[in-house]
């Protein structure tokens, strides 16, 4: 029997214990250097609801303050305990046994038990109620609760270890009694509780007096204020009316940083991807598509579009992803000469290569700028294309329906298990709105399936990731250019104690004023 028990002091390698001290338990030495305050946080969009399964960007400032996950990740993707103190992966990776932390209370005062986790999993597995978590539950067959502190999750087939860990990290227990009302009334175990809300204006949270992490939260109140745009939020920070901006843009963040404010970046960025509709000419020509691997001036795109905040990438992975491979960036660096050679191999005429438009999201300034950069770069190799600029919902409709030849768009889930990239439209393996059915790249489908079913040695797992990476650059239906930050934090230099979150959610429990 292959039974891997992962207790508190031994999680995925020797590095894990040090990481746990920073995330699973408070850093007392650091906390003693901070004092509590009322945190005044500026956000640029109002929340949707209090359901942690509504994993939408506009809710990112609330989720990890109202709820805790079963496990957490360190910034480099190592798993550490949270509400689960240990977990054991069963024979053939077909189950995981989770032990819950004792003494944890929901905001109502009720204790956390396996029945609450079971109720949470039931909600997550319902396509009408599971929302953004539903897809993650696709690997789950059922679950049992041997006792109040234990839950066993059974899988439909063998599941790779990292995919199991992603499931545990994405599971944020909701009190069973609060499942039906969770959209309007939080029902979590988090460091903060709801104190009040003014729709479209603000949300106020107060410290949970019975929170399970010793010495946390440091600050006793958070006031989130909704501002009309990034400029208004920046003005509030500069005037002293706000202490923190969460979720602002890169350009304003750099300007504020240069003015003396602190910028905190997390390990969970998006990746900007040049999305290609291979069902339409000239992009149905493989050599023509492959040339774009070398036509992206990634350094220039990052510098001009995102003020240098991010990393150039040639694959759709953040550094925390187990499939990340920095060597590809060197191999597919900007190289017009290699691109020209592939364009010549394509056999297409200049007119054929120029007979398309680049769809542009006019509402998003970075996208406009990088589209202009690519237009200029293509002109240098003899490809003259026009920009088709659409605003707001008009662009979103075209993008989601695949009504374009090429466009830029960010993709998420790039720091977790590699096949999670398939949650993004251009990378979907089924019902792909751009590439259509049947999927035109069977090698890609096979590579995703290989990743999903390889759970043996590290060499076998790495080989599966390498195979997927090679298929991605060969098929070239999506050309990544750079990572960029969501959930950027710009703050007063008087504050410290920011905890990085793998999804770049805002974590306030460790933040306080410097003494």
Task: Produce a short descriptive summary.
The model is unreliable at 1-26 (pLDDT under 50).
Topology, please?
Layout: E1 4-6, H1 16-23, H2 28-31, E2 34-35, E3 38-43, H3 63-66, E4 71-73, E5 79-81, E6 84-89, E7 95-100, H4 114-124, E8 140-147, E9 150-155, H5 161-170, E10 192-198, E11 202-207, E12 221-226, H6 230-239, E13 244-246, H7 250-258, E14 262-264, E15 270-276, H8 286-291, H9 298-306, H10 327-331, H11 336-346, H12 350-354, E16 357-361, H13 365-380, E17 386-390, H14 392-401, E18 406-411, H15 442-453, H16 458-475, E19 478-484, E20 489-491, E21 495-496, E22 512-514
Parallel strand pairs: 3-12, 3-13, 16-17, 16-18
Antiparallel strand pairs: 1-6, 2-22, 4-5, 6-7, 7-9, 8-9, 10-11, 11-12, 13-20, 14-20, 15-18, 15-19, 21-22
Signal peptide: 1-21
Keywords: Signal, Transport
Pfam family, one: SBP_bac_5
């Amino acid at each position: 029997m292959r039974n891997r028990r992962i207790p508190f002091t031994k999680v995925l390698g020797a590095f894990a214990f040090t990481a746990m001290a920073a995330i699973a338990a408070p850093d007392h030495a650091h906390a003693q250097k901070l004092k509590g305050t009322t945190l005044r946080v500026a956000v640029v969009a109002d929340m949707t609801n209090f359901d942690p399964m509504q994993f939408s960007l506009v809710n990112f400032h609330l989720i990890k303050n109202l709820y805790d996950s079963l496990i957490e990740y360190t910034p480099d993707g190592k798993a550490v305990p949270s509400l689960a103190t240990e977990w054991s992966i069963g024979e053939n990776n077909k189950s995981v046994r989770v032990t819950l932390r004792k003494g944890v209370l929901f905001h109502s005062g009720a204790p956390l038990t396996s029945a609450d986790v079971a109720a949470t999993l039931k909600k997550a597995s319902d396509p009408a109620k599971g929302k953004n978590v539903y897809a993650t539950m696709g690997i789950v067959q059922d679950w049992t609760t041997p006792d109040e502190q234990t839950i066993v999750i059974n899988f439909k087939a063998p599941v790779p270890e990292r995919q199991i860990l992603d499931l545990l990290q994405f599971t944020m227990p909701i009190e069973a009694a609060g499942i039906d009302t969770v959209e309007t009334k939080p029902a979590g175990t988090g460091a903060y509780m709801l104190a009040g809300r003014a729709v479209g204006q603000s949300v106020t949270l107060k410290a949970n007096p019975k929170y399970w992490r010793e010495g946390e939260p440091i600050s006793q109140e958070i006031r989130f204020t909704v501002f009309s745009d990034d400029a208004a939020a920046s003005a509030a920070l500069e005037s002293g009316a706000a202490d923190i901006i969460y979720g602002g843009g890169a350009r304003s963040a750099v300007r504020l940083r240069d003015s003396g404010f602190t910028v905190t970046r997390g390990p969970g960025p998006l990746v900007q991807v040049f999305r290609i509709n291979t069902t339409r000419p000239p992009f149905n020509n493989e050599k023509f598509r492959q040339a774009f691997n070398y036509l992206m001036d990634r350094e220039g795109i990052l510098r001009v579009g995102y003020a240098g905040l991010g990393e150039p990438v040639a694959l759709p992975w953040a550094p925390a992803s187990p499939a990340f491979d920095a060597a590809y960036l060197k191999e597919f660096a900007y190289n017009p000469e290699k691109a020209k050679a592939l364009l010549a191999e394509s056999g297409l005429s200049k007119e054929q290569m120029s007979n398309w438009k680049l769809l542009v999201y006019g509402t998003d300034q970075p996208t406009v700028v990088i589209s202009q950069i690519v237009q200029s770069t293509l002109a240098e190799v003899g490809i003259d294309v026009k920009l088709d600029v659409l605003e707001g919902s008009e662009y979103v409709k075209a993008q989601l329906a695949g009504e374009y030849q090429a466009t830029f768009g960010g993709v998420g889930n790039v720091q977790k298990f590699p096949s999670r990239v398939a949650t993004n439209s251009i990378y979907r393996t089924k019902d792909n709105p751009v590439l259509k059915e049947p999927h035109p790249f069977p090698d890609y489908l096979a590579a995703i399936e290989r990743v999903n079913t390889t759970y043996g040695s590290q060499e076998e797992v790495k080989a599966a990731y390498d195979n997927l990476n090679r298929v991605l650059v060969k098929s070239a239906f999506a050309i990544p250019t750079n990572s960029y930050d969501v959930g950027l934090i710009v703050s007063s230099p008087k504050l410290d104690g920011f905890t990085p979150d793998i999804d770049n959610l805002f974590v306030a429990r460790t933040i306080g004023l410097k003494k």
